[in-house]
Amino acid sequence: MKRLKADQFADQWALLTAGQKEHFNMMTISWGGMGTLWNKPVVTVYVKPCRYTYEFMEKNDYFVVSFFGGTHKEDLNILGTHSGRHEDKLSLTSLTPIEINHGMTYQEATQTIICKKIYEQDLNLNQIPVEAMNGYYRNEPVHRMFIGEIIEIIEK
Ligand SMILES: Cc1cc2nc3c(=O)[nH]c(=O)nc-3n(C[C@H](O)[C@H](O)[C@H](O)COP(=O)(O)O)c2cc1C
């Protein structure tokens, strides 16, 4: 297993991509985790149901998390503020999509983690701390947690 740092989501941000070459979508994420579940190496991501990417996460058995080593933040900002539902947002960036096993990543990615979905569940409103509730969910639905078993890591 290659080396993964739990805080690299917050530090570097990442792209979460689901779908195949003919039909895929991606969004920026900065929340997530790396760890172990049921003795498998896993990545956990949190996606709001209003994201277009959510539909791809629901329909596909795999998802891909691509890191850029802290570079390309402008591109990640575009992909995290525009929706693929309304426009070809990838064309607004300098990123080049490439096909990999079970999905898509980007030529510029320094680390790509291919994940097979093994669990998903909406966060439970009753269990969310008051500050987080007030900060994130006052008028908005909760995130859905997706846990993926790490199938492959591609590094440059
Ligand atoms: C730095 C950054 C981090 C983000 N992290 C998350 C996240 O962890 N979960 C989430 O649901 N949305 C997150 N977003 C918001 C989505 O990336 C954003 O809503 C995006 O436009 C969704 O695109 P889509 O509709 O094409 O899926 C983040 C945005 C930015 C800029």
Key features?
alpha+beta, binds flavin mononucleotide, globular, 156 residues, 7-stranded antiparallel β-sheet, two-stranded antiparallel sheet, 17% helix, Pnp Oxidase, Chain A
Q: What is the rounded distance between the termini?
A: 15 Å
Helix coverage percent of residues? 10-25%
Average pLDDT rating: 96
- Largest sheet entry: 7 strands, antiparallel
Determine the CATH superfamily.
Answer: Electron Transport, Fmn-binding Protein, Chain A
CATH structural architecture:
Roll
Range of strand content: 35-45%
Count of strand segments:
9
The shape, in one word, is globular
Strand arrangement within the widest β-sheet reads 2-1-5-8-9-4-3
Which structural class best describes the helix and strand composition? alpha+beta
The figure for the number of domains is: 1
Bound compounds, each kind once, are: flavin mononucleotide
Spell out the helices and strands N to C: HEEEEHEHEEEHE
What is the third-level CATH name, the topology? Pnp Oxidase, Chain A
Uncertain runs are none
Number of helices: 4
Taking Cα atoms only, what radius of gyration do you get, to the nearest Å? 15 Å
> In CATH, what is the class?
Mainly Beta
